[in-house]
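User: Structure please.
Assistant: Input sequence and predicted structure:
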Amino acid sequence: MQLHRAGIPNLVVVGNGAPMFIAGFRETTGFTGPIYTDPSLEVYKAAQLKRGLGTFMKLGAVKATVGSVARGFRQGRTQGDATQQGGVIVIARDGRVLYHHISEYPGDNASPDDIRSHMLAA
């Protein structure tokens, strides 16, 4: 949530867990912006985000996991569909999609600098 802390406006998070998990997400991340949840995964499908066990069977997933553990990160309890990968979409006020990152595997995250630059361009 580095972007929100950097004062980038209009950042929205959409999770796939139950609504009761939103408070815990806020506490863990410090994110104060809008948070929505879609356990049906319809938003994820519309955004063409990847889902399935196959997303874990990629070399990039192994590298990302090893790198995270080496940096001291530990995954907490999964809340929602663990096989659903995320992504980032930056949408201009007029509805144009300015940036669309689809995570191929766990740990395949968009660069905060890339997101920020596209958000500022909106």
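Residues 13 and 35 are 5 Å apart (CA to CA).
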